[in-house]
UniProtKB/TrEMBL annotation:
InterPro entries: Cell_Envelope_Assoc, DUF218, Rossmann-like_a/b/a_fold. The keyword Lyase does not apply. CDD domains: YdcF-like. One of its GO terms (biological process) is peptidoglycan metabolic process. It comes from Arthrobacter alpinus. This is Uncharacterized SAM-binding protein YcdF, DUF218 family. The chain crosses the membrane at residues 28-49, 55-77, 89-114, 120-147, 312-334. Keywords: Membrane, Transmembrane, Transmembrane helix.
Length: 336
């Protein structure tokens, strides 16, 4: 019962924090904690009413190594699909690398332990602590990325900013057309007397024949958007610049007010976090993405968020390092 009460309290806190500002990762921490306590509370009640359900929990724990192997196999298979369809860039290899890590790290930890060397055992313990920490952080990220991606925009935007991605042979590929179609959908849903400005945003990459924003603007106009309602931003080379430069374009065009930013569903949370960091009043919405693309895409976004908050994560890992050093010293002391 206590677990369910905690779940209810955390659920209320989550709703309050999300309404206050949905663009904060702490909301994901509260959401995952609420779900965890709810699961524990429901499990406790079921165990009291139906004692046989305890065996289900034991079965899940017993099968967890098998589940890890299955997950690793899925990620490796997905990595092979990404290489075949998208090429061999590091970003496209992330699901493959994650799958290999899921198989290799437990083996490495076991090999360290069986050496019976105190330092090696300490390294195995540190590996366990760090993997557990980053596993929990990934669950928080993924849960809130999905939750944020399901939210609907609630304001009538002054402008709809559509974030760019790589164009191919000067043309808009399917991944980018999904964003543009979503932007057009939001534009057409707005009241005619308050039609937002459409701002396709993206500069010219080294392997692109022209700026992404220009190709995107042509796509929007060809799809029926009025020419005078489309203003391309063609200088940005990353998401932060997309947001900053597009907000400047909106102000220049006299569109002072909230923005709706459109990107693919895997990218919404990081774009939202960046918009908050830059002080830009924006809601971020997601467009559909091919399913095979999602595992590597979410992993890439997770790595990017870790890099943007690297100091915080280093500080959070220091207690694990200190605990490992203490345990290693204790093992050495006992063995002498």
């Amino acid at each position: 019962m206590i677990s369910l009460i905690l779940a209810a309290v955390l659920g209320c806190v989550y709703v309050y924090l999300r309404r206050k500002d949905a663009r904060m990762l702490r909301n994901g921490i509260v959401l995952v904690a609420a779900c965890w306590f709810a699961l524990v509370g429901i499990t406790e009640i079921l165990a009291q009413w139906f004692p046989w359900t305890q065996w289900i929990g034991f079965g899940i724990v017993a099968l967890s190594p098998f589940a890890i192997v299955v997950l690793a196999g899925f990620l490796i298979s997905n990595g092979a699909t990404m290489m075949r369809k998208e090429g061999r860039s590091l970003g496209n290899l992330l699901s493959l690398l994650a799958g290999l890590a899921l198989l290799g790290l437990p083996v490495l930890a076991a090999l360290l332990v069986i050496t019976l060397n105190p330092v090696a055992i300490g390294l195995a313990a540190l590996l366990f602590f760090l993997c557990s920490y980053f596993g929990v952080v990934f669950v928080v990220f993924l849960a809130y990325a999905v939750a944020y991606g399901k939210m609907k925009h609630t304001s009538v935007p002054a402008a709809v900013v559509i974030l760019g991605s790589q164009i191919i042979n000067g043309k808009v590929p399917p991944l980018l057309s999904s964003r543009l179609d979503k932007g057009l959908e939001i534009y057409r849903e707005s009241p005619p007397e308050a039609s937002p400005l459409l701002i396709p945003s993206g500069g010219q990459g080294a392997n692109e024949s022209r700026p992404e924003g220009v190709a995107m603007a042509e796509y929007l106009v060809a799809a029926g958007a009025p020419h005078d309602h489309v203003v391309a931003e063609d200088q940005a080379v990353n998401t932060a610049q997309n947001l900053k430069f597009s907000a400047a374009v909106a102000r220049k065009e006299g569109r002072d007010g909230p923005l709706v930013v459109v990107t693919n569903n895997y990218h919404v949370l990081r774009a939202a976090l960046l918009s908050r960091k830059l002080g830009i009043p924006a809601q971020v919405v997601g467009s559909p993405t091919a399913r095979y693309f999602l595992p590597s895409a979410f992993l890439r976004e997770f790595v990017a968020i870790l890099k943007e908050h690297k100091r915080l994560h280093v500080l959070m890992c220091l207690p694990f390092i200190a605990l490992t050093a203490f345990l290693t010293a204790a093992i050495i002391a006992v063995s002498q």
